[in-house]
Amino acid sequence: MNLFNIGRIIIIGYAIFFSCEKIKPVVSSTIQISFTEVTKNAGLADFRHITGATGDKWFPESMGSGGGFIDYNGDGWPDILLVSGGVWPEKEKTDIPALSLYRNNRDGTFMDVTASTGLADLHTYGFGITVADYDNDDDQDFFFTTIWQNHLFRNDGGSFVDVTAKSGLGKDSLWSTSAIFFDADRDGWADIYVGSYVDWSPENDIWCTLDGITKNYCTPELYNGIPSRFYHNNGNGTFTDQTEQAGFLPAPGKMLGAAELDFNNDGWPDLAVASDTQRDLLYINNGNGTFNEIGAISGMAYDENGRAKAGMGIDVGVVDGSKKETIFVGNFSKEMISVFRHQSDVFFEDRSALSKIGRPSLMTLTFGLFLFDAELDGDLDLFTANGHVQIGIEQTQDGIYYREPSHLFLNDGSGHFADIVPIIGGALSKPIVGRGAAYADYDKNGTVDILVTENGGPVHLYRNDSRLNNFLRINIKSINGTRDGLGTKLVGIINNMSMERRVKTGSSFMSHSETTVTFGLGNAEKLDSLYIYWPDGTKEIFNNINGGQEINIIEGQGKLAAQ
Amino acid sequence: MKYLILLIFALYCCSSNEKQTVNEARVNPKVNRFLLQGSDFLKQHNFTQALAFADSADKYTTQKAGVHFFKGRVYSELGRFAEAEQAYKNALKATPGYKGVWNNLGNNAFRQQNFSLAIDLYKKELMLGKATIPLRAMGRAFVELGQTDSARAYFEKAIELDDKYAAAFFNLAQLEEDEGNLNKALKRSSRAYGIEPDNLEYRYVYSTLLVQLGRGNEAIYNLEEIIKKWPWHHGAHYNLGRALVDSGRKGEGEKYLEQAEKVRATQAKIDHLENTVRALPDDPYSYAALAFALRKVGRYNDAMHSYKVALYLDQDNFDIWNNVANLYLLQGDTITALETYNYIVSRNPELTDIWLNMGVVYALSNQKEKARNAWNRILDSEPNNASAQNFLRKLNNN
User: ipTM beyond 0.95?
Assistant: First the structure.
């Protein structure tokens, strides 16, 4: 010990370049991409997301909410479920329904059935939905996240019953965001991972500013993150919190998106998680429904400079001939969309810039994000819904806008993308305050359509009017896995080239897309082969399936049924 | 002498200012001397003194442009953009076409994220004559606006003028990297690093590109050297971790990745504090908080800058003065630390903590009598001060 304590003085104050074999474009070169906004004609124009903002700039008001597709009445036509946001009980007495459900009339229009399906009486401050048949009774149930208690709704013949209390999923009162159903332990029952954000309440709200004068919305760095939770499905309508036992603790929190994948092809579902201003996470399944978090060592947690980005929406898919899964994460403005392709072992390579997505995505703030085959040419393209969190950002950051156009990055088949929105213009180029994003073929014409929610604004339904390539759509039903086949891998083969798809929930930002699998066939008339890898480890093969149709396949029956 | 005059303008201005200033100095040597002294103070982040010397120079010259230009630089460093703009405009009023003014105004617009305005201002500078600095600055502004073709063109124009302009090569490397052209980026960054091998930022980017290209083993030595000099640099830790893992040294790599996470968390706090001072440029405590965070990670020079801005905003804040003195000590500058302590107690002799610290520093530098005097000074007003008594007892026993 030094005689004089000096401490006293201080105290006062890869790229291993895969030469990836390209998924050969099976598309004619004259394909034209076109999306038409049909929100009004579809009967969705009256919907408005409510932020509850009254001028205090409370943090959750900038978050927005999700929505998506659910076939609540089991007629095979995707219906639309939207989260309405909410109001603050301290400030406003007016309650609005937390959810809005619209039935697909099978003619391109929708009808509000919120009240008749039992959803009109719930009032809360809501964020996200995820849909699955958690009780394996052949209908679609859903889970709803809020800033307080979350809710589980059981589908009873086309109307919903709030079974939160009975299910054991309502014990926590935390700010939850995106959630994902997946069968972590492959016991045939859908478990759920519920993302948590930060420890915020009106009482601990922090004053943030861009100009030193006016309060503005804070960014999450100022708040403590709350670790997300994992609930195991007991198979009897109840869930047990196994967050710690399953290996999901500790965690930094501030989670905004989660996607299921199986990067090591061991048949066990892994989980990729997007975190806002924290490292992104990769949970590898230990082969028994427990997980290890390996994001940092895998190389997917940070950007090339070791910086944690503001992760929002997330999705995973095979986008090139490498047959390796690639993770896509939407981030803040002045941050590239993250693109990480599995390399080998547990390692991923950063392809954010190499994919050609990075630079064009630098000026936008991406929330909802998903992979789909926009022009049915066989490869997965990337759609992103964009919008800033700070109203008036234009005044403080030149080149950044509150309302932003969407991106539609078309894949050339080799994992290189180009944003075509600036070229095609139209509905997707209209600046909006984008948040949630989901897809489904709502008009059942074979092309995949897009639903986007806005913060404090309308919903947008973009009909895919792209000149048709051929397609094949497949609904699966598992017997030994979860009834809706979560975790099933489908591989379609045309001309020796493969297309890989996965049946999953989650992904994007607080939203739910259809679980029907779409294969773009280009000019081909049929799919040469279809391999189905069921969650129980069995495999089925079907050959010479004609395109231009939607088919149903039930595990183990060895036959296809046209819908 | 000419070298010293150049130093005054080294940070911001175009090279032709040298001539402008020399001409003014010929008019009156006092002006030159005052500006030199002001420049010295500016280098030490002593903003108030720098401005005082500028005022002194002002009294002795009729050609005011250089003085106003210098004031513009001081206010720019303080982040007081309105005052800087006024000073620069005064310089233009005194001498229209004064070189460097439009460039510096452009820099300030850039710092305020008004990139379109910055471009307009750089263009005005370029109308006075082609120069590498505003050309590169134009490129950087175009990058921020996402207009990469224009950015590339301006970087290349800067290189056409000076093929040893490392900063422009560096910016081109970053541009190529963002566009996924990693081999081109490596080539550009290699050029920048080759021109300025002591520039750690160039060395770092060159190394990260090697890591991205799967040549991490070639980057390990460089990254280790960077971490020695910049232990607070999370990117260097992260990339070293990745390079080691990629080279099969997984255990070592994981340690650096863990360390990177810790450093990153600290950097995130600093980033937030930097945003706060941008939002609250008149708040001395925001600058002091930033300085404290920077000092904690060992970025002493940056910390000193922030403390000095805080002092500019609140000259009578003795807590900040004390932290400045302590920081001098950490930098190994005992003399200035003691001068600062003495300055503080000359302003307020009742601050016992300062006397206490001053005594400790005297004792550490073996000036026992001065240490004794400092601690006794405390006992004059606080006879029962236990810390002072304890220090004195230890001093007498040694």
Answer: no
